[in-house]
Amino acid sequence: MSYRLGVDIGGTFTDFALLDEARGEMFIHKQLTTPDDPSRAVLEGCKHLLARKNVAIAELESIAHGTTLVTNAVIERRGARTGMVVSEGFRDVLDMARETRYELFDLRLKFPEPLVPRQLRREVEERVKFDGSVETALDEAAVHAAIAELVDDGIEALAICFLHSYANPVHEIAARQVAERAFPGLYVSTSADIFSNMREFERWTTATINAYTQPLFDSYLRRLADGLAATGFLGRLLVMTSSGGMLTPDAARRYPVRVLESGPAAGALMSAFHGRALDLPALLSFDMGGTTAKGALVNDFQPLKQYDLEIARLHDFKRGSGLPVKVPVIDMVEIG
Q1: Is the alpha carbon torsion for 249, 254, 256, 257 positive or negative?
Q2: What angle is formed at CA 7 by the lines to CA 5 and CA 9, rounded to 5 degrees?
Q3: Mean pLDDT over residues 83-91, rounded?
Q4: Contact 255/194 with Cβ under 8 angstroms?
Q5: 15: Cβ–Cβ under 8 A, 6 or more apart, which residues?
Q6: Phi-psi sector, 280: left (phi>0), alpha (psi -120 to 50), beta
Q7: Closest residue by Cα to residue 270 from 286, 292, 290
Q8: Is-contact 257 307, C-beta < 8 A?
């Protein structure tokens, strides 16, 4: 017998779908989300559904997991105290942003506060040019001193963001090694590893979001994996990404920013599946949960995809009023 289980944590309910592959049957279960520890609802729901269908957890081949935990952590500002090390002279990039106004004539215009406040950013001497050549070598002693200051200030996570690191990440890698040697308990994200492309503002905001959510998501996945192992689960745990793909728990712990729209992506994929079954190539997917409603277009049996989104917008439909993120994502509109 072969079984697969799908789990989706929403703001109100946690949903479960058990697939019996041999018989082609589906069984579902729904229960309230446990906001204090979402893994508790997952473990309790798995136990309840499997017992109801007389299936041992050891018979599960895999568990596919979608969640809005990362998105909610950014929107509600519940992430870790995060520091940032940047190229000398570029400490204020997060504040200058794109230097555009999303509402031209609004005299009380507001932008989202950066996840890393200015007092938790440090500059270090280094410079890689646009072609990847090294103009100024990295001062590793200055890197160590900067990180030590931030650690003394109570940071749990660190974003290392250097100019033109997409062309040559050698300085970011060296700085990461300094951090890992001297402060092994620190969560470290480097911008070229998270999103290796030009335009430092978008690359750096993506890296800071990854660092900001990494301790929380790492802790959650460890509790979930340990809880499943304690009940006898022997299969594979997979985490859905914003693009509809899957990550192993180790990869998801390293790149939580890729899981921002994890749960909503599944709804768009299911609409595309229905479209193929009904021979309807063009659809509007609508997915209403207890907290948010999501809409996505399906064209030629595939949901539309893009490589950027904005999270935590101050105005739902005004581009530029949120934090830009550069990751593969299914193109969706989400409202409260």
Answers
A1: negative
A2: 175
A3: 97
A4: yes
A5: 7, 8, 28, 29, 30
A6: beta
A7: 286
A8: no
Token pair listed for 159: 């974003």
DSSP reduced 3-state for 5: strand
8-state DSSP, 129: -
Task: Report CA 258 to chain centroid distance, whole Å.
Answer: 4
Rounded CA separation 29/10 (Å): 13
Distance of CA 286 to the CA centre of its chain: 22
Residue in the block written with tokens 């503002």? 201
Q: What is the pLDDT of residues 17-49, one digit of tens each?
A: 999 998 999 999 999 999 889 999 999 999 999
User: Which stretches of the chain are DSSP H helices?
Assistant: 38-52, 69-75, 93-96, 140-152, 170-182, 191-194, 200-230, 249-254, 262-278
Q: Is 44 helix (H, G, I), strand (E, B) or coil?
A: helix
Please answer whether residues 295 and 283 qualify as being in contact, where contact means their C-beta atoms are separated by less than 8 angstroms: no
Q: Residue 223, SS3?
A: helix
- How do strand 121-124 and strand 82-87 relate by DSSP bridges? parallel
* Among 105-109, 148-152, 232-236, the least confident range: 105-109
Q: How far is CA 163 from CA 99, 113, 208, in A?
A: 18, 22, 15
Q: Which of 323, 328, 331 shows the shortest CA–CA distance to 111? A: 323
Structure tokens at 295: 């809409």
Q: What is the pLDDT of residues 279-314, one digit of tens each?
A: 999 999 998 877 778 899 999 999 999 988 888 877
**CA angle (148 as vertex; 196, 256 as ends), nearest 5:** 35
3-state secondary structure string across 170-219: HHHHHHHHHHHHHCCCCEEEEHHHHCCCCCHHHHHHHHHHHHHHHHHHHH
| Single-letter amino acid code for the residue at 7 | V
Q: Are strands 305-306 and 329-330 parallel, antiparallel or unpaired?
A: antiparallel
